[in-house]
Specification:
The chain has 15 helices and no strands. With about 325 residues, the protein is mostly helical. It has 2 domains: about 220 residues, Serine Threonine Protein Phosphatase 5, Tetratricopeptide repeat; about 45 residues, no CATH class. The longest helix is centred in the middle third of the chain and has 44 residues. The N terminus and C terminus are likely disordered.
Length: about 325
Amino acid sequence: MSKSSDRSIAAVVLVAIAALAFAAGSAFADAAQDCLNTQDPERQIGACTEYLRQTQITAQQRSRAHDLRGTAYLRQLQFDRAVLDFDEAIRLNPNNTLAYAQRGKAQEIMGMSLGGQTALDKAATDYGRAGELADAARRTNPSAQLDEAVASLRDHRDCDQAKDAARRVKGCSNVIDALRSRATAVDALAYENRALAYEELRDYGRALADFDRAIALNPNYVLALVDRAGLHRFQGQNGAAQRDFAEAAQQVDRMAARSADPELAKFAKELRDRAIGSSDEEQLEQRWIAYLKELEAANDYQNWSDRPYTLYRARQGGIADQRRK
């Protein structure tokens, strides 16, 4: 996520590194040192792989090495490999706090790329477990860094869960506040999650503002485009909905071309159909408005209770008011 939240979560790295007691005098000393070096992910992956070939290391050391290699894969956006390493790190050491936190982060990013709420639910579970472990470490060795880590992990957990909209708003708001001016494309997730929570709470103005912010941070954020299109359509803004659905379809088409995934191609077609549907509704709406204005211009509305376009606007305002309730 953000640099600030990275620092918060990374507070528990102190515990991880302390437990990673590589044998400096062994033939694998160079690999051990490079496995700890986070400046060069490719070199770190090779070194951790070499270190894991040792047979004499403990399960805890092996867990830390998988954790570090998974983090390097994560930085290279190789999410599937990262998750496999975090899975193994947790299997070897169920109390590996950082592995849970980093697997949660990987699941968050996969949630942005069409993984949806299923991936975010997994992220929330992992952040929750990481928070529990960090809290236990804090009770044993109190520190301001661990205080910050526990708070950050809990905020990410609350921001990713979808069962309690009010709690989601609060968690995402804390994550966003921690970003300050350092928000990146990955951090768009917090705005998207908060927008969905605001939408559930029927605070549509704030929801739309957060969708806008998420897409500004990450113009390729397909799910945010789709969710904003849905809100536009709900509010009767069919032209805006059509544009968002069409842009999302183009994004998914490009993804399908790279992966040759038939499911992605199917999703792109569904989005194009939604764009066409929104366009048709927009055209019908515009034709109806034009007809009402023609009646007014011709003074041909004797059987109406008021000017036709005035009645239409009043009706639309009433519908909008109902949607805001």
